[in-house]
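Extended Data, panel c. Modelled sequence:
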Amino acid sequence: MKFPTRHPNLNSLWSALLLEELWRLGVEHVCIAPGSRSAPLTLAAAVHPHLQQHVHFDERGLAFFALGLAKSSGRPVAVITTSGTAVPNLYPAIVEARQSGVPLVIITADRPPELIDCGANQAIEQQDIFSGYPGATIRLPTPSLDIPANWLLTSIDQAYARSCRQGLPLHINCMFREPLYPYKSDEDYSLYLAETTRWTESDAAHTEYELHGDGGLNASPVPWSEFMSGKGLVVVGRLRTSDDVEAVLALAQRLGWPVLADIQSQLHGHPAVIPHCDLLLSSRSGRALMCQADRVFQIGGHLISKRLDRFLGSHRWQHYYMLGREIRRMDTGHSQTYRMVGNIGRICHQLAQLHSASDAPLLPDWLEAFRMLGQKVSTVVRHQQVEELSESWIGTHLSALLPEEASLFIGNSLPIRLMDMFSAHRSYGVYTNRGASGIDGLVATAAGCCVATKKPLVLLVGDISFLHDLNSLQLVRQLDVPMLIVLLNNDGGGIFNLLPLAKGDSAIKHQAIDYFTTPHGLDARYAAAMFGIEYRCPESTAAFKEAVELSLQSPGCTLLEVKTAPGEAACDISQIITRVEEL
């Protein structure tokens, strides 16, 4: 595709160059919040033949929607906003993107220098507004014929390599003077673009960076033979691709060690995985088994289970290996002894090939003891729950109700803990926002995941998280694939019922209600009606199962509200832990 040389004005030309180069670098989706100062960028995105545009009125929800698109597609997604307070509304999603290793391209329009810090309308200091969370920041001057187009293109390429190619956000701040809109016939910029002929007549980025940080091992890790000869555990956190999942399973089989898998690993419920690892650590027998290990190999991202994370940080390991995609530290106990950074699938495949299965220690009795205890815990979880619709019942059974092609997005706070603790069924496409683990933007992120995958998706979310992101129901009402929102409405922040504050005397309990759980007494049916979304409120497990099945057969969004008593989930968890402690 030959880049056009005629444009309405210089603002339009620079915006077109910027969007074109981002597309050549791999951006396919651009999310746009309406605004005047960003008009040159918006109009350039609107006419680009290959970019898919998404428009939303709420910048915070829009940024989380972009996060979901990027998370599930594996490709950077661009976000365009105007100047002023629109910009800091993007901050929460940028923090989550940075913490979870998801690339976003944040393009913010800005006033020119002469309108900053002088009382001009909608003008704030936007330079470095996101602090150190972007991997790179470009501070573009106002477009000028005195600045070569090659400079603009190479600046984008270099910043993109430093950020998005590393799984980090990129911030591009664009200063524009008026005119912001086309006001006359196009001008010919052939002379200005003359030095970019090679670029204008091709589809390639101006400067291509070849990075080797996402490869495998350059050589066999020296201590690997010694490491695999002991009694160890494999702990699997967040994995992103099916290749990673298969490679991790193959390596675990070679090692012959028990595998403990987080709900984000895509391995939860796999026959080779010990179920309910969080509850195992509540059992005296489980702790005794785990303490026999003298080494651990942790693979992937963040862990949900605080018990497991604390155990990993407090146990005295001879060797603690960690394999992840990002060099960013994930070592809350500050006890890791060896770090491998790179492509998880490739590295696991290489490690599995270093030794045959016969080289690994044979620990059948120890492994069988783990499996037997895991089965006992599963029995406790099943028998403790009556066939009544509750939060713990949903946490146990939801995965089993989903068709294999459906994805599951699990909200933070109580829902993610219920799923990680109780679910023992295989989930194939699990998404979370566990970088910063905020309760904001969950509806929007799930909507972005659904759009990118083009497959049915179920969002399990709590009521406070849902209320936090109510504006994003505008995004889900536009979906043409099935999306089901399972809303756990326990009338407030149910997670606080699990904390010591809720177990104090009467005065403390009243403070917990007034200042932490914050009861709201709201009904979601009216929110569904406002946005034209199908609504159901099942009161039995049979009605819930039927609603899930029907909702995933029809395009569009359905809101399934499950009303439960405050504190009910905390009581269920406490009773199950009490039973497990006796094992």
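The chain is about 40% helix and 15% strand. This feature is highlighted in the accompanying rendering.
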